[in-house]
Amino acid sequence: MAQSFQQEYMQMPPMTRTYTTACVLTTLAVQLDFVTPFQIYFNQELIFKRFQIVALFVNLVFLGSAFTIMLVYVWSRRNPYVRMNFFGLMNFQAPYLPWVLLAFSLLLGNSVIVDLMGIAVGHVYYFLEDVFPQQPGGLRILKTPRFLTYIFDRQDDPNYNPLPEERPGGFNWGEGQVAGEQPHQD
């Protein structure tokens, strides 16, 4: 069990592994009272010193939830055939997951502004990264800075062995035989 968890953890892309680790460590640090949430919040004074502008327009001090919903939105759009189950109550396709989470937040009485912001940012990212470049005359507007590609792109590493990309629900149409036809035996 521990070995498979470690293998799964090490097979995550570096940025995903870093973000996941940071979320877990930050949560533990807050829960164990090593830091308070107000020591790690979004500080509007830093907007003018370091040009931080995401939360300025929506008056949010904690952006982690919006970022998580954004990641859920992008994942759900890239995996449209994955079947989801919400607490055993309802089944749906993955693209509906952000909306189900938004409805659940609403039922719990939480503000949906954070979820809506995450969905909006996720949609813009998905459109600019996956949809627009595939259109006639489209191009990739979002490009990874070269220094990040240099640091994190491990294609030249002979030990790098990424998992094959899986799209659950996909089918290998055309790789079989004609229905009713006997297989050829050579």
Automatic annotation (TrEMBL):
<dbReference type="InterPro" id="IPR035952">
    <property type="entry name" value="Rhomboid-like_sf"/>
</dbReference>
<protein>
    <recommendedName>
        <fullName>Derlin</fullName>
    </recommendedName>
</protein>
<dbReference type="Pfam" id="PF04511">
    <property type="entry name" value="DER1"/>
</dbReference>
<keyword id="KW-1133">Transmembrane helix</keyword>
<comment type="similarity">
    <text>Belongs to the derlin family.</text>
</comment>
<dbReference type="InterPro" id="IPR007599">
    <property type="entry name" value="DER1"/>
</dbReference>
<comment type="function">
    <text>May be involved in the degradation of misfolded endoplasmic reticulum (ER) luminal proteins.</text>
</comment>
<keyword id="KW-0256">Endoplasmic reticulum</keyword>
<keyword id="KW-0472">Membrane</keyword>
<feature type="region of interest" description="Disordered">
    <location>
        <begin position="158"/>
        <end position="186"/>
    </location>
</feature>
<feature type="transmembrane region" description="Helical">
    <location>
        <begin position="54"/>
        <end position="76"/>
    </location>
</feature>
<keyword id="KW-0812">Transmembrane</keyword>
<feature type="transmembrane region" description="Helical">
    <location>
        <begin position="19"/>
        <end position="42"/>
    </location>
</feature>
<feature type="transmembrane region" description="Helical">
    <location>
        <begin position="96"/>
        <end position="128"/>
    </location>
</feature>
